[in-house]
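Entry 14. Structure prediction run on the chain below.
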Amino acid sequence: ILVLLLIPVMFIGPDEEMTFERYLFKSCMPFMMLLIFYINYLWVLPKHIEGQLKISIFNINVILVGVACALVALARVYEYSLFPPRFPMRGIMPPPHGRHFSSLFFMLALIRDALNFIFVVLAAYSLRMTSHAHRLEHERHEAEVARRDAELKGLRLQISPHFLLNTLNNIYAL
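Output returned:
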């Protein structure tokens, strides 16, 4: 949990002052990633595996990623209105007309965020499907062992009467 609380601190620039408001804005992206991961891992994918989902996983994740991108973009716009970036920012020229960021910068950040969210969805999907495959393999192995035990028990039951009959026949012959 401590690591999750410290993730936003990694995104504070060297010339930025650490305030509670800035910490909250920097926490928005990791929080959305965790939210998307756990919604997929704990709710969407188990419902899909059980066949209870009426809508496709793709549609649900498009909605989730779209809403998360919109919320992160709104947080970013609000953050830049409270804390305007100092220029030059790593080779980006100051935007004209007094705006705090250019539309190109905004679109690139939006694409980056969408790709990060898609990566989180894929990670949740791969982890859930891997655990599902392991569970199915374990159930298959248990069924195989139970079938083998039942077969051996049946063979023992077939052998026991014959052994008893053969023993009685040998005693009778003596």
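The chain is about 75% helix and 0% strand.
Filed with the rest of this week's runs.
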